[in-house]
Amino acid sequence: MTIYLLKRIYEDVADSDGYRVLVDRLWPRGISKERAALDEWRRELAPSAELRTWYGHKPELFDEFAKRYRDELNASGEASKFAAEMASKPTVTLLVGAKEVGISQGAALRDLLSEL
Q: What confidence score (pLDDT) does residue 10 get?
């Protein structure tokens, strides 16, 4: 079973990160490819521009955002596809540029992937 971790891409790389995947649609400012140390960049796992704009990282909207984001991922099948691809990896770290990872798309995605 794969363990999904979540952290900001601005944090230092750790051996415990395992397989590192950026799940933002846009490349984070000020991060070089070398510093990012990514194994993959999966833009298709990011929320739509419309949903991201609606949400605006307002904590009071997170629960509704997470629901709508989950609906997007289920409709596209991308989360299930990703989970199947990651099944052989013991640890996968989802990386986001958001300042507050606990209310980011990464948190919602981690929760969904952990259920699949």
A: 97
